[in-house]
Amino acid sequence: MNIANRSKDKNESTVDRGSKETRRLFLQGNEAIAEGAIAAGARFYAGYPITPSSEIAEACAEKLPAVGGVYIQMEDELGSIAAVIGASLTGVKAFTATSGPGFSLMQENLGVAILGEVPCVVVNVQRSGPSTGLATRPAQADVMQARWGRHGDQHLIVLSPATVQECFDLTVTAFNLAERFRAPVILLADEIVAHMRENVTLPDPAQIKIVNRKKPACPPEEYLPFKPDPDGVPPLADYGSEYIFHVTSSMHGERGYSQNDPANAGAKIKRLFTKLDNHLDEILLVKHHYNPADELDLLIVTFGCTTRPARAAALRTPNLKAGVLQLVTLWPFPDAFIAEAAQKARAVLVPELNLGQVIREVQRVVGKEKPVFGLHKSNGLGFLPAEISARIEEVANQCLR
Amino acid sequence: MPALSWREYLDEKMLPHLWCPGCGNGIALGALTRALAELQLPRNKVVVVTGIGCWGKADDYLATSALHGTHGRALAFATGVKAARPELTVIVLMGDGDGATIGGNHLIHAARRNIDLTAVVLNNQNYGMTGGQVSATTPVDAVTSTTRYGNPERDFDLCRLVDAAGANYVARGTVYHVPQLDRLIRDGITKKGFSFIEVISPCPTHFGRRNKLGSAVEMMKALKTRAVNVNSPAAKTGELPAGAFLIGKLADRDDPDFTARYAAVQQKAQAKGGFSS
Lengths: 401, 277
Known about the structure:
The structure holds two protein chains of two kinds.
Chain A lengths: L2 H4 L16 E6 H12 L1 E6 L6 H10 L6 E4 L3 H12 L4 E6 L1 H16 L4 E7 L16 H6 L8 E3 L4 H18 L2 E7 H5 L1 E6 L43 E3 L13 H16 L2 H4 L2 E3 L7 E7 L4 H9 L6 E6 L1 E3 L3 H9 L1 E8 L5 H9 L5 E5 L8 H16 L1
Chain B lengths: L24 H15 L6 E5 L14 E4 L5 H11 L4 E7 H7 L1 H10 L4 E6 L34 H8 L3 E6 L3 H13 L4 E6 L3 H7 L5 H11 E3 L3 H4 L8 E8 L5 H15 L5
Parallel strand pairs in B: 1-2, 1-3, 3-4, 4-6, 5-6, 7-8
Antiparallel strand pairs in B: 5-8
Helix pairs in contact in B: 1-6, 3-4, 4-5
């Protein structure tokens, strides 16, 4: 893989912000997610109310019917994700939004979307847990659940926004990746970014890059809904089109009918991984909030709501060069970007609103070559820049001075 | 276009089916394919949604489009298909465990929403696929692999439940009364709004054996003697003998269905101009 090509910050919007159709709005993160979904072409939302994500449902209930879409409030989150999967298979871009307790309930059917290769987007606005927890204070403790929350071997894409603008931009990206890879994508937001209000630019819809799923081109009688193209992704027809096909939560062959053959099962499960891992250049997104060519004393690895206080703290460190690497894609984990950045730093710090999740991955990537420090907090409060500054000072005293 | 026969709705490559000798599932599957053939529904406009269980395997034998989901959630998957594409015919096949026990919440809400789905719930009074455990339709005192001393819980009357929840169409049939079952499923499919057809069916392998109900043939005969047609004089008296149950159309109304109501919501939203931000 060519690190140099990949290390540019890909999530920067390339649109012309002076275009007439561009709108400048003062929006909440959740509202920006709803706007991003509709801009990406979503026309179906099924969900169940839960703080701190409910504004997404409320916005969709108002806006989707106005653009010919459907909002349906289901009886629970198990049903919400099920309805999203059913809708997506008719060819409609579909999504749901929830928070921790509801995200837990969605896990089984997220497995259906993974195995059945159904494009859809699930927004999890993280709140403090476990269980009902500190309703509804911020946390970032669902990073591992998003990746590993379901039974069985499976793989999926998780993106994490740090600003209201990113709420909009990354929701579009989430739909594009879901359609591109015929897979569910998780937008892992948090209470802070979801409830924050700031100015955002909604680009001219004509300038937003939209990806639509590959449709089959073969005659209907030859269509095999799980036969991959060379890129590992099978084309997906719509229910109701001339293509008749089966999708199942059971292990299946290329025809989509249940099949227990071990060779087939092994190949299918492996393909669920390789169809993502062979295209990391399209999936992995990070933002360097420093010049990536620079040598650093301290690399601060952040995601979501820790990014801003970490950036503020990095600017306030006297006699120390600190830089913030923001992980936009959390899964697949952006190993190569972290390895490259860590090589140019003397130490690494990972602040996160949990007792140690992303730091485990960073330690795995960095190894024992460089010291990796954490700053962990799980009490329902976000980080202040001063808290991160204090930790930077400790780290500096320990190994940088 | 030449007329489609019932066989063309079956995927014969997948036969023989996995159901036990004496099971009623094959009869119910036959009834469904005959109903589809009578209505001449194009196969690509039909989506069959199933959950997990013996009857939930039925989609493997159908040549329509299908979505085989998770245990208890078939109606929720189907709700997404129908709400997104109201022009499709969506048929949901669930057993009593799938449809009424783990999935009971979706059942009452699909009925309340009156969404235009046709649910065919095959009730064999226990969990057949996992070895004959108690379900929400196992009668009180019945023996199953998890009620060795008799079931301490009462069973649901599913038709009354779904009727009370607001479905447009509620019917009960059995796999003994086959011509009637064909008609009940056919009428359920044509009916706008939520249609619910409970199909009483024997499970000689588990429920029959543990409750000493005799052979599969004897269990079939019991369906004949216990079922009382809702239009019969016996049914009109309101007094049914012990063990008897009504079959036929039990509720039939024409309340607006969800997709019609939602089309009105879309019109209002579009008239208002939509985006407020």
